[in-house]
Amino acid sequence: MVGTLRLAVAQSTVPEDPGDRAAIRAAGGEVRALMREAAGAGARLVQFPEGVLVYPDKRVVVTGPDGSGVPADWTGAAWDVLREEAESIAALAGELGLWTVFGSLHLLTPPRRPHNSLYVVSDLGDLVARYDKRFLSNTELSYLYTPGRPEPTVFDVDGVRFGLAICIEANFPTLFAEYERLDVDCVLLSVMVDDPVRATVAQAYGTLYNYWLGYAVPAQYAASAPSGSLAPENHWTR
Predict the structure, then answer these.
(1) I need a surface site. Which of 93, 95, 135, 200 has the fewest CB within 10 A?
(2) What is the DSSP string of 67-121?
């Protein structure tokens, strides 16, 4: 029997310079404020956008002096601040008893590029899963990130089974069909894009596969397609 829970889908302002320590700290503070708001509203799980602590603008990190693309130099990223903010988010999740899914960069041993990831933190404040973006854009694959392993990520909360996806992965129907075969009840799709069509595509998957969708987008792009959840009956709850 499928369980029930209250899902909160958040939108916060996502910084785009991985070296901007103050902006990353501000982003972490905004995440925690929204966590408290979600918990106060009775949410059991809260979902945040892709790269909510920082989503590097390719013009900042992969553009050479002549304007051409170059591999990202990750040595200037504020990895220590990203770690501290992620740890603070996890600690608050435990304090609030709130499952939390949020996007961030995941450092790998150089010279490997980082993963673009979603962290899953339990209501006890423990990191229980990490989803690394599997399907990357040409720029991401060429200059920015290491793709994740091909296996999907599935986790359960109160009898509800969740799957995870990130942004451009909405363009790959096989990923969403795979989650249907794994009997998920809800796919959490976190994005960093100003693209209302992507929300429409997500809506189609929910209808086609008869599961819920959580769609998290940053505040700066919310005017065209705000965060929300989509019921299998094909209507948004925002």
Answers:
(1) 200
(2) S-B----GGGS-HHHHHHHHHHHHHHHHHHT-EEEEEEEE--STTSPPEEEEEEE
